[in-house]
């Protein structure tokens, strides 16, 4: 079978679907020139493949080696339907490549009149200069130039030239494709591994920053007493199931190394420059998590959990909390598979009980509904996102576990929280596990909240001093033993 890039280029939807169904395949990987599968599908106008990739979580603003996004390629080749899909999925209409050209530059140069009109209608600036001082209007034929100038004026654009500014891509909504070779290496050659600096140490092991195969990674050295043949066999059976590359909100375990040749069993995962969500919220990073970003993080986590809940069997011993959610370079929240416990790691012990559902602290694992318990953990994460506080920070882990399980300890929702987030939090934290929603039910709710937050941000940018009307969020209705969600 040809590689995924060929299949996307040729529009082989059946082969692409089969490839995507393998969780060890990363749809956001790049080829030798940094083209992702979405780049190729957009360039060749393969609409059905584009739909499939976007639905599975392809990054919309990913850049190839020349800094072209999929929108650049769709616009230059006149694929109007695909341009519309990308814009609907919040593609950056003013993204500049290494030469400073935007998608509108390409549409104008290649005479894609309708695509150029669509881009301007959706926010593309007609007066952005590339490296050579040329605007999209300079690239257009006379009839298109006059039409776009007139349209831009009607939309309120300032036609004064915007000088080229060399922007560094890291830390924006755009990102690079990942190294597609990493998901080919389940086993690690310990001699190729470099441990550079210790990040942290806890009950389960040590965390190191390192390098492997030319990539920045995080190395987790597991503390395991009495490494036996049985534990070695369990380790080999369990870690491949955590190599989940197929969803953008899940951070896979890249591989593992046995003991020996290493002194202890080790696992590795991608290096995330911002660390965990816990680090971002509570340990003083250089950016502020406002309500818009908090809702975006919540949506990312919900999407990742919705995907994990479709797996059969589910990943065992996975406990959702802010320390196990990592933040990628483009501010994407990703659920780390490196934080899943192995069967031989301290069975029966809970290291972060503040996020654990009451029934999970009271009963045996086989007696609880894991999906409902995860929803409780998500509710605590929501509380953490909107309050910026550590849940039950004044208590020890043992006190937290005992009080949640036996004394009804619950987080207090402070005043001033958005009533819509507050209502969602309460319904996800229902004392009856059967009445909590599923993640695929709350994803549309959070998408609606995100759209409303983005709209409010746009209004605030235009009218700093105006009073903003409160937005209407989806309605949540608890009914009987199920949850009904209406948009």
From TrEMBL:
Any coiled-coil regions, as ranges: none
Xref: CDD domains: PK_ILK (cd14057)
InterPro entries from the UniProt entry: Ankyrin_rpt, Ankyrin_rpt-contain_sf, Kinase-like_dom_sf, PK_ILK, Prot_kinase_dom, Ser-Thr/Tyr_kinase_cat_dom, Ser/Thr_Kinases-Pseudokinases
SMART domains, per the entry: ANK
Annotated GO MF terms: ATP binding; protein serine/threonine kinase activity
GO biological process: anatomical structure morphogenesis; cell-matrix adhesion; integrin-mediated signaling pathway; substrate adhesion-dependent cell spreading
ANK repeats: 33-65, 66-98, 99-131
Entry keyword set: ANK repeat, Cell membrane, Cytoplasm, Membrane, Repeat
Pfam families (UniProt xref): Ank_2, PK_Tyr_Ser-Thr
Location of the protein in the cell: Cell membrane; Cell projection, Lamellipodium; Cytoplasm, Cell cortex; Cytoplasm, Myofibril, Sarcomere
Protein kinase domain location: 193-446
Major place of residence: membrane
One GO cellular component term: focal adhesion
Membrane association type: Peripheral membrane protein
Protein family per UniProt: Belongs to the protein kinase superfamily. TKL Ser/Thr protein kinase family.
Name under which the protein is recorded: Scaffold protein ILK
Species classification: Eukaryota, Metazoa, Chordata, Craniata, Vertebrata
């Amino acid at each position: 079978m040809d590689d995924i890039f060929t299949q996307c280029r040729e529009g082989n939807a059946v082969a692409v679907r089969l490839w995507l169904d393998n969780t060890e395949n990363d749809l956001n990987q790049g080829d030798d020139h940094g083209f992702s599968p979405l780049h190729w599908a957009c360039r060749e106008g393969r609409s059905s493949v584009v739909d499939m990739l976007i639905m599975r979580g392809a990054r919309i603003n990913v850049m190839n080696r020349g800094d072209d996004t999929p929108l650049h390629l769709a616009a230059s080749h006149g694929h109007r339907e695909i341009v519309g899909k990308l814009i609907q999925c919040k593609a950056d209409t003013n993204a500049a490549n290494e030469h400073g050209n935007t998608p509108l530059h390409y549409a104008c140069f290649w005479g894609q009149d309708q695509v150029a009109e669509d881009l301007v209608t959706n926010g593309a600036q007609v007066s952005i200069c590339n490296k050579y001082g040329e605007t999209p209007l300079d690239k257009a034929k006379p009839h298109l130039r006059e039409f776009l100038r007139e349209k831009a004026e009607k939309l309120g654009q300032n036609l004064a030239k915007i000088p080229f500014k060399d922007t560094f891509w890291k830390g924006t909504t755009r990102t690079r494709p990942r190294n597609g070779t990493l998901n080919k290496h389940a086993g690690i050659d310990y001699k190729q591994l470099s441990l550079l600096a210790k990040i942290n140490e806890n009950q389960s092991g040590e965390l190191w920053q390192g390098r492997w195969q030319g990539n920045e990674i995080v190395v987790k050295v597991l503390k395991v007493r009495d490494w036996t043949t049985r534990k070695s066999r369990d380790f080999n059976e369990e870690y491949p199931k955590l190599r989940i590359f197929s969803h953008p909100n899940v951070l896979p375990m890249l591989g593992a190394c046995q003991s020996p040749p290493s002194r202890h069993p080790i696992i590795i995962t991608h290096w995330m420059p911002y660390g965990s969500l816990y680090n971002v919220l509570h340990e003083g990073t250089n950016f502020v998590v406002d309500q818009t970003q908090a809702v975006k993080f919540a949506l990312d986590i919900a999407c990742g959990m919705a995907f994990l809940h479709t797996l059969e069997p589910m990943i065992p011993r996975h406990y959702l909390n802010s320390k196990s959610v990592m933040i990628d370079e483009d501010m994407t929240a990703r659920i780390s598979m490196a934080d899943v416990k192995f069967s031989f790691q301290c069975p029966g012990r809970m290291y972060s009980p503040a996020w654990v559902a009451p029934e999970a602290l009271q009963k045996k694992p086989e007696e609880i509904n894991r999906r409902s318990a995860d929803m409780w953990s998500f509710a605590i994460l929501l509380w953490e996102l909107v309050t910026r506080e550590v849940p039950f920070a004044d208590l020890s882990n043992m006190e937290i576990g005992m009080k949640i399980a036996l004394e009804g300890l619950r987080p207090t929702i402070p005043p001033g929280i958005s009533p819509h987030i507050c209502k969602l939090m309460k319904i996800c934290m229902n004392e009856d596990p059967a009445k909590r929603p599923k993640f695929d039910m709350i994803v549309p709710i959070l998408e609606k909240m995100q759209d409303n937050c983005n709209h409010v941000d746009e209004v605030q940018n235009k009218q700093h001093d105006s009073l903003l009307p409160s937005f209407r969020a989806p309605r949540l209705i608890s009914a009987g033993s199920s949850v009904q969600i209406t948009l």
